[in-house]
Amino acid sequence: MILSKDEAQTILKKVLSFSTADETEANLNGDTRGNVRYARNTVTTAGGTDNVSLAVQVWFGKRSGVATCNQFDDATLRRCVQRAEEIARLAPEDPEYMPRLGPQQYLTAPSYAASTAGITPDFRAQAAGDSIALCAAKQLTAAGFLEDGTSFEAIRNSKGLEAYQQATNLDFSVTVRTPDGTGSGYAVADYTDATKFDAKALTQRAATKASSSVGAKAIEPGKYTVILEPAALVSDEGLINRLVYAFDAREADEGRSFLSKKGGGTRKGEKLFDSRISISIDPTNALAPSGTFDNEGLPVKKLPIIEKGVAKNLYYSRYWAQKSKTEPTGFTGNFVMEGGTQSLEELIKSTQKGILVTRLWYIRDVDPQTLLVTGLTRDGTFYIENGKIKHPIKNMRFNESPVIMLNNVEAIGRAQRLGGNLVPPLKIRDFTFTSLSDAI
Amino acid sequence: MGLTGLAAGALLLPRIPLLGGTEVDAAELLRPFDAAVNKRLADAALNAAKAAGASYADVRIGRYLNQYLFTRERQVQNIVSTESQGIGVRVIVNGAWGFWATNQLTESAVAKAATTAAQIAKANAKIQKEPVKLAPQQGYGEVSWKTPIQKNALEVPVKEKVELLLAANAKALDAGASFINSALFQVNEQKYFASTDGSYIDQDVHRIWPTFGVTVVDKASGKFRSREALSSPMGLGYEYLVPKAADKVKGPAGTDVIGYKQSYDLLEDAALAARQAKAKLTAKSVVPGKYDLVLDPAHLGLTIHESVGHPLELDRVLGYEANFAGTSFATLEWKKQGKPYGSKLVNIVADKLQPGSVGAVGYDDEGVKTREWDLIKEGQLVDYQKIRDQAHIVGQDHSDGCCYSQSWQDVQFQRMPNVSLRPGKQKLSVDDMIKEVDKGIYIAGAGSYSIDQQRYNFQFGGQTFYAIEKGKITGQIEDVAYQSNTQEFWNSCAAICDESDYRLFGTFFDGKGQPSQSSAVAHGSSTTRFNGVNVINTARKV
Question: What domains can be seen in chain A, in order of their start residue?
Answer without folding.
Answer: 5-209 (3.30.2290.10), 212-239+339-436 (no CATH)
